[in-house]
Design a protein that fits this description.
alpha+beta, 3-stranded antiparallel sheet, 25% strand
Length: 76
């Protein structure tokens, strides 16, 4: 992962995929990493949670999108 990427959010995989799609739709690059130690879902190989990182210069826009998508959540 490039060092200029900053943490945006940690979400369950279903919600992380939704956030990733919104980032893609808004041309915001991202990196999503599985949260190790959080366990796996019953289906082998699928991570329960993902941490999403975006470039520092795009973070404020990504945070706006995050709040629009999950208004009552605090990045987790």
């Amino acid at each position: 992962m490039d060092t200029n990427y900053e943490f945006l959010a940690e979400k369950e995989s279903m919600w992380a995929e939704m956030l990733i799609q919104v980032l893609k739709d808004n041309d915001i690059p991202y990196t999503a990493l599985p949260v190790h130690g959080a366990g796996l879902t019953i289906k082998a190989g699928i991570q329960e949670r993902l941490r999403i990182f975006v470039p520092g210069e795009k973070k404020s826009r990504a945070e706006e999108l995050l709040k629009g998508l999950f208004p009552d959540s605090e990045n987790q």
